[in-house]
Write a structure and sequence with these properties.
185 residues; alpha+beta; six-stranded antiparallel β-sheet; 6 helices; 6 strands
Length: 185
């Protein structure tokens, strides 16, 4: 696998998700039970081990987070609650979920723009290497790690108090990444 540079990764993240209410953050993996490492990222307890960009719409909005805790907009979840809501998905499904976030949860747009977006999504996942596992809260992942997403995301197990949220975590031997999209309406 080709090494992903910081500049390329950050440019892809911004092209895909800068204008979408998302949370994109990476943290180090310390434990074999990756759920605790993911929760540390969601709680903003750790920084990106490489110093790369984090997309966090709520980081500087203390008014939104006040009374909700450091994980807002995520609920204060336990390791067990996180495990119950997340189901294995393939890396290709995770890449498609990133593109669906760009298209505001609906079907992926015209082939040309979708091809470029999918290349950016694969580049983002490339940071974590070849030995990754991905987990998502989309309903379709309960029955298949590679669900048909042609209609977009149609259901999820919530991790926030919002009307809708979906995303995935990526787990590598060295890092965990959290990619999440929110619908606060």
């Amino acid at each position: 696998m080709e090494t992903v540079t910081q500049a390329a990764w950050e440019a892809a993240a911004l092209r895909l998700l800068e204008d979408v209410y998302t949370f994109v953050a990476t943290g180090p993996r310390f434990r074999s039970d990756w759920q605790n490492d993911v929760l540390a990222v969601m709680n903003r307890e750790i920084d990106d081990p490489r110093g790369w960009i984090t997309l966090d719409w709520d980081k500087n909005h203390d008014g939104r987070r006040q009374g909700h805790g450091p994980s807002f907009p995520f609920l204060p979840l336990s390791r067990e609650a996180l495990s119950e809501r997340l189901h294995p998905v393939t890396a290709e499904t995770a890449a498609r979920l990133l593109v669906i976030m760009t298209y505001e949860w609906g079907p992926i747009g015209p082939e040309g723009s979708a091809t470029e977006a999918l290349a950016d999504a694969r580049l983002l996942l490339g940071r974590y290497g070849d030995e990754i596992s991905c987990y998502s809260n989309i309903s379709e992942a309960r029955s298949s790690p590679s669900p048909d997403l042609t209609a977009g995301v149609t259901g999820w197990s919530p991790l926030t108090p919002y009307d809708g949220d979906f995303g995935f975590v990526v787990v590598s031997p060295e890092e965990v990444g959290v990619f999440w999209s929110f619908n606060p309406i």
